[in-house]
Amino acid sequence: MLMQASGDIAMLIAAARAQRRNVLSEPEAKAFLRAQGIPIPPGRAVSHAEEAPAVVRELGVPVVVKAVAHQLTHKTDVGAVMFPVESPAAAEAACRTIAARVAIHRPDIALDGFLIEAYRPAQPEWIVALRNDPHFGPVIMFGLGGIYVETLRQVSFRLAPLLSDLSQQPLIVRDISEIEINPLAATENGVLALDALIVLHS
After folding, report:
1. Domain check: are 143 and 99 in the same one?
2. What percent of the residues of the chain are helix, what percent strand, and what percent coil, each to the nearest 5?
3. Domain with 176 in it: what CATH number?
């Protein structure tokens, strides 16, 4: 089931729990972020490739096309992200190409659909993550994101300065193990979460 950005965090988590999974899909993770006031690119999830052209006509070009499956936490590794896509027809073709790539590289995964978003290039790309460490509590990671996370490893860790605020949000402390935004675009107009991963406590 594809969930659009409902803004209801409890509903997002409950839906994942009901399906016995501890990872939110990207549309679900971005709905979570948007509910927390973190901007995300305009976009919409679709179940079938044939639906992509209508979304592109609504958003305008260029767009980015991504596979949606909660098990697919590293989409670029299997070619499940394509950008910039410059036309409605190209978006439908991109969906079919992505589906074929996932079928080859991850035949164990059944796609839920595709995420079509306005393309927002980010230079440089950043990563920010919040993790609930069993010993230290909430810890923040920040550094160069995108492909540079693994190659350059220029990140730093700090105890979350929002600890007192987080303690007033039992939903986050109780249910969320990790929130990762990578890449995070930073512009003169603010930040934009281009991709997101949220892992629930088992």
Report:
1. no
2. 35, 30, 35
3. 3.30.470.20
Q: Where are the beta strands (DSSP E) in 150-195?
A: 155-159, 176-187, 190-193
Under the banding of pLDDT at 50, 70 and 90, the label for residue 183 is: very high
Residues 153, 62: Cα–Cα separation, whole Å: 30
pLDDT digits (tens, 9 = 90+) for 106-123: 999 999 999 999 999 887
Q: Is 143 exposed, middle or buried (0-12, 13-18, 19+ CB in 10 A)?
A: middle
pTM (2 decimals)?
Answer: 0.85
Query: How many angstroms separate the CA atoms of 41 and 135, rounded?
Result: 35
Q: Is residue 2 part of a domain?
A: no
Residue 108 lies in a domain: yes
Q: Cis omega before residue 42 (within 30°)?
A: no
The answer to whether residues 132 and 111 belong to one domain is no
Helices 88-105 and 52-59 cross at an angle (nearest 10°) of: 130
Q: Which has the closest alpha carbon to 6: 25, 26, 39, 28?
A: 28
Q: Is residue 102 a contact partner of residue 81, using CB atoms and an 8 Å limit?
A: no
Looking at the structure of the chain, the number of domains it has is 2
Is the CB of residue 1 less than 8 Å from the CB of residue 24? no
